[in-house]
Design a protein that fits this description.
Length: 340
């Protein structure tokens, strides 16, 4: 649960507080000579143990996320719990170590005022531990967030390069398609040009966004599949089943296109052995893209950048893994969907 820097700061805090309180303890009484040497390690053990209890409690509340517990109640509950745990731990040490340095020179638990003093001490230890833990934790999270943004930007740039590679001047090509639609004489040619232009329009626009609504990705995929079916005709079968309530969820742009392209690239496609691709969602919700496996006898050269890029973008955007399943008959990729 704890990371190295959190453990390091616990020992720093313990060392500082133990040193300060040990010095003050010697000054409050007859001097350092009146304190036996072995009593200092015992005292340090008691202080470090109570601080450790605070550190553990605050670490549990700050590191974990609770859907039912918002920020301010979470801070209050963390300090309240740490105060109680520290108080009862100190009392247990008081009862178990009757001859300890704390018990001989400290405040007992015999009156209400003594109990209040111990509660205030426990609360002070909790607050000091909380402030330090919260500061180093938020600072580390901020650094991680900056690093993730940089990595996300790099992954996004690689996705742009991947989608636009081997394309000469997409804007020029898009404008040329518009001209071709105007001069085309037959309707099938016009339809094909319209769908091809829609594909390029989406590719050009996606560069500005990390996420896109699923309904927009599906609209783009339908144009993309129109082009693919003109090439493969009945050899390519695609079934899309997406409930209306899932269409507003978000997905990294071009993820679905890369999966379909990956299936077409690596599998044999013929009228006798059509490639069947199914696109659907489950209740999680997740987008599942499945195709039957009929791998080419001579595999095409592949860098594997398509799936790798999708996996990297999901890791940075959603902190959720992309699930890849291959049972020998079917290949499936499951993409988590993000709320808008």
């Amino acid at each position: 649960m704890f990371k190295t820097y959190q453990i390091k700061w616990y020992f720093i805090l313990t060392g500082i507080l133990t040193s300060v309180t040990s010095i003050s303890l010697g000054l409050r009484h007859e001097g350092f000579k009146s304190v036996k040497w072995w009593e200092y390690p015992q005292y340090a053990f008691q202080v470090s143990l109570t601080l450790f209890a605070c550190w553990m409690v605050h670490g549990f509340f700050l590191v974990h996320r609770f859907s039912w517990l918002k920020n301010y109640p979470k801070h209050f509950l963390s300090n309240f719990t740490a105060t109680l745990v520290t108080f009862f731990l100190a009392y247990s040490l008081y009862a178990l170590l009757p001859n300890s340095l704390l018990n001989d020179n400290g405040v007992t638990y015999e009156s209400l005022s003594d109990v209040i003093v111990h509660l205030m001490s426990a609360f002070l230890a909790s607050i000091v531990s909380y402030v330090l833990f919260y500061s180093i934790y938020t600072n580390a999270e901020l650094q991680n967030s900056k690093l993730e943004n940089e990595l996300l930007e790099q992954a996004h740039l690689r996705a742009q390069l991947l989608s636009l590679q081997q394309q000469i001047s997409p804007h020029f090509l898009f404008n040329s398609l518009s001209t071709l639609k105007t001069i085309a004489s037959d309707q099938p040619t016009k339809n094909y040009v319209v769908q091809l232009a829609a594909v390029y329009r989406y590719v050009l626009n996606f560069n500005e966004h990390y996420l896109t609504p699923l309904k927009e990705e599906l609209a783009f995929i339908k144009s993309y599949l129109y082009i693919m079916k003109e090439r493969f005709e009945a050899s390519l079968l695609v079934i899309i089943h997406i409930p209306e309530e899932h269409l507003e969820f978000m997905i990294p742009p071009l993820s679905l296109q890369l999966l379909i392209e990956n299936a077409i690239k690596h599998n044999m496609i013929s009228p006798e052995r059509p490639l069947q691709i199914t696109i659907l969602t489950n209740d999680s919700p997740e987008l599942i893209v499945t195709n039957n496996l009929q791998l080419k006898k001579v595999p095409e050269e592949s860098t594997g950048t398509g799936l790798k890029n999708i996996t990297e973008r999901y890791k940075l955007l959603m902190h959720k893994p992309v699930q890849i399943t291959n049972d020998g008959n079917y290949f499936a990729v499951t993409l988590p969907l993000l709320k808008k």
